[in-house]
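[step 3/7] fold_predict: job queued, chain A
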Amino acid sequence: MNLLILRLLMGVLIAFFAGKLVSKIKLPAILGWLLTGMILGPHAFGLISDKLLDASWYQIILNIFESVMGLMMDLCQYSRHKNSNFYAVFLKASSSC
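[step 4/7] structure written:
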């Protein structure tokens, strides 16, 4: 179990630095994070194994992380696209923008 947590932390650290490296060439940092996840994931080098991804505590942390990221989205910045489907689905119901 400790080895799985260590591997996860090492993967997050590598992804952080990959994001910094990618942002130096004027690309979004999330591109570095995604590439790191694809390379270190269970289908490439296998640093982060399927056993870790299936753990119940990992799923709970993942759900919390997804919720926090959703709350950080500023939906009002998307209001300039009033003709898009995004506006029709998400912003029209909460017309606080």
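[step 5/7] annotate
The two ends are 46 Å apart (CA to CA).
The CA atoms of residues 14 and 36 lie 7 Å apart.
exit 0
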